[in-house]
Amino acid sequence: MNRGFSRGGISGRELEKSSGFVIMVSKGLGKRMEILARLRKSDRKFWYVCYTCMQQTGHDTLKAVFYSEGPPVLVLGRPWMVCPRCGGTNTKSFQTLKDEGSRSALWGLENIVRKYPRRQFEVQTSG
Question: Residue 51 in contact with residue 35, Cβ under 8 Å?
Fold first, then answer.
């Protein structure tokens, strides 16, 4: 009993029954999704949120998040990323947020970043 699903018309997928329900298992897409997830996770270290900009813009996340692959600056022996908008070092990478366990903040920031093209967050410093 496959509840209206035909086994022949689904290419690259397999139907499984589990406790009366039909579950569609995708074969082959798992590797692609895994690669994309790895790219997204490794990308977190280049995305930053600037808390100074967040306060100055009335918590406008679009104006407080930036993307940078530049090297961090050492401040009192610790590496900090300088915000290209305000020049402050009150920043955190998305990876740091994940490591600290700030899942809800990270989830919200990553959703905003996915909605807009990267070029919107790549701030060019004048100079």
Answer: no
Q: What is the sign, positive or negative, of the torsion defined by CA atoms of 34, 99, 86, 111?
A: positive
Residue 23 pLDDT: 41
Sign of CA dihedral 55, 59, 62, 65: positive
DSSP characters over 32-64: HHHHHHHHHHHHGGGEEEEHHHHHHTTS-GGGT
Apex CA 63: angle with CA 58 and CA 64, to 5°? 80
Tell me the C-alpha distance between 68 and 70, whole Å.
Answer: 5
What is the tens place of the pLDDT at every residue in 57-88? 999 999 999 999 889 999 888 889 999 999 99
Asked whether the CA dihedral 68, 109, 54, 102 is positive or negative, the reply is negative
Domain limits, the chain: 43-120
- Report long-range pairs for 77-80 (Cβ below 8 Å, ≥24 apart): none
Q: What is the pTM of this model?
A: 0.65
Rg for the chain (alpha carbons), in Å? Answer: 21
